[in-house]
């Protein structure tokens, strides 16, 4: 008979990390990694709770309109899936999309894709989105437009100032964005090691989105006309959106 060691406990690890973060002997570098691990543990605990409810990895309803990574921006008549509350379902999308094949008509996300790791999780997400959409179904994706930012570097510092005002004026990183290159660093990494934000892990432009979704099997990938009844109005400036059709 095989004897399995007791499963390591996430709760215990969480307590140990909290204790280490209180300990003055824990240096800055280790503390950064521990804070990132603590965030992953939080996501994992929510995900594991949902996985226990849906052990097949598929929920028993079949929503036709789904938003992924909407955070506080809920959309009427959409089923909202996010890693953390508030959402209709807490699920770590890096583990797949918990919906049935060919069941969704519209899937929407904005300012989500750049927060998951490329290529493993991003390409997995694109394939999963293709699997759950009906024939003719649409995947709408909006991300910060790296091309918009880079197009103006370094010649247009006025635009850099506008970017800082629009994107970072209410954040505690404001005093550390001192040059145009700092704006670019922030857009590519967002706030690494910040309590309320997860960093950006990859940058996108329209060409990259077209390549990504074409590779995943979508028939067409085209620019999406911004529609504030679905999208978050504050995302319009400086973002790029595409619609991929199955
Ligand atoms: C920058 S917020 C964008 C929120 C909203 N879409 C908006 O535009 O205001 C990124 C969202 O993606 C979610 N997210 C990040 N990683 C995720 C993952 N692995 N699975 C599910 N949601 C995730 C975060 O919890 C957060 O709500």
Give a brief rundown of this model.
The protein has 246 residues and is an alpha/beta fold. The protein has helices spanning 10-22, 28-53, 120-132, 146-151, 157-168, 180-189, 206-215; strands spanning 65-68, 79-82, 89-90, 104-110, 133-144, 220-223, 239-245. Helix 1 runs antiparallel to helix 2.
| Poorly predicted runs of 5 or more residues | none
What is the count of DSSP helices, taking H or I runs of 4+ residues?
7
CATH class of the largest domain reads: Alpha Beta
The biggest sheet amounts to: 7 strands, mixed
Give the helix/strand class. alpha/beta
Ligands: S-adenosylmethionine
Describe it.
By secondary structure, the protein is α/β, with parallel strands linked by helices. It folds into three domains: 10-52, no CATH class; 54-145 and 204-245, Rossmann fold (3-Layer(aba) Sandwich), CATH 3.40.50; 147-189, no CATH class. It has helices at 10-22, 28-53, 120-132, 146-151, 157-168, 180-189, 206-215; strands at 65-68, 79-82, 89-90, 104-110, 133-144, 220-223, 239-245. It has a seven-stranded mixed β-sheet with strand order 3-2-1-4-5-7-6. The relative contact order is 0.12. The structure holds S-adenosylmethionine. S-adenosylmethionine binds at residues 69-71, 73, 82-84, 92-94, 110-112, 115-116, 198, 232, 235.
Features:
single chain; 3 domains; 246 residues; seven-stranded mixed sheet; 7 helices; binds S-adenosylmethionine; 37% helix; flat; Rossmann fold
Task: Tell me the layout of helices and strands.
Layout: H1 10-22, H2 28-53, E1 65-68, E2 79-82, E3 89-90, E4 104-110, H3 120-132, E5 133-144, H4 146-151, H5 157-168, H6 180-189, H7 206-215, E6 220-223, E7 239-245
Parallel strand pairs: 1-2, 1-4, 2-3, 4-5
Antiparallel strand pairs: 5-7, 6-7
Helix pairs in contact: 1-2
Bound molecules: S-adenosylmethionine.
S-adenosylmethionine (SAM) binds at residues 69-71, 73, 82-84, 92-94, 110-112, 115-116, 198, 232, 235.
């Amino acid at each position: 008979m095989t004897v399995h060691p007791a499963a390591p406990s996430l709760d215990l690890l969480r307590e140990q990390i909290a204790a280490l973060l209180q300990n003055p002997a824990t240096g800055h570098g280790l503390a950064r990694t521990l804070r990132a691990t603590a965030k992953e543990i939080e996501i994992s605990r929510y995900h594991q709770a949902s996985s226990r409810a849906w052990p097949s990895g598929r929920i028993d309803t079949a929503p036709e309109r789904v938003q992924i990574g909407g955070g506080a921006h809920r959309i009427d008549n959409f089923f909202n899936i996010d890693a953390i509350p508030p959402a209709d379902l807490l699920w770590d999308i890096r583990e797949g999309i918990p919906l049935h094949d060919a069941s969704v008509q519209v899937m929407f996300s904005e300012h989500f894709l750049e927060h998951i790791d490329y290529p493993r999780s991003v390409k997995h997400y694109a394939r999963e989105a293709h699997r759950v959409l009906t024939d003719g179904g649409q995947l709408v994706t909006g991300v910060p437009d790296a091309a918009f930012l880079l197009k103006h570097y370094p010649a247009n510092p006025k635009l850099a100032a506008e970017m800082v005002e629009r994107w970072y004026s209410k954040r505690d990183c404001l005093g550390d964005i001192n040059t145009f290159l700092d704006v670019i660093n922030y857009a590519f990494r967002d706030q690494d090691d910040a309590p309320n934000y997860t960093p950006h892990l990859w940058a996108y432009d329209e060409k990259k989105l077209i390549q990504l979704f074409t590779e995943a099997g979508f028939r067409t990938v085209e620019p999406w006309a911004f529609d504030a009844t679905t999208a978050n109005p504050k995302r319009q400036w400086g973002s790029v959106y595409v619609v991929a059709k199955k």
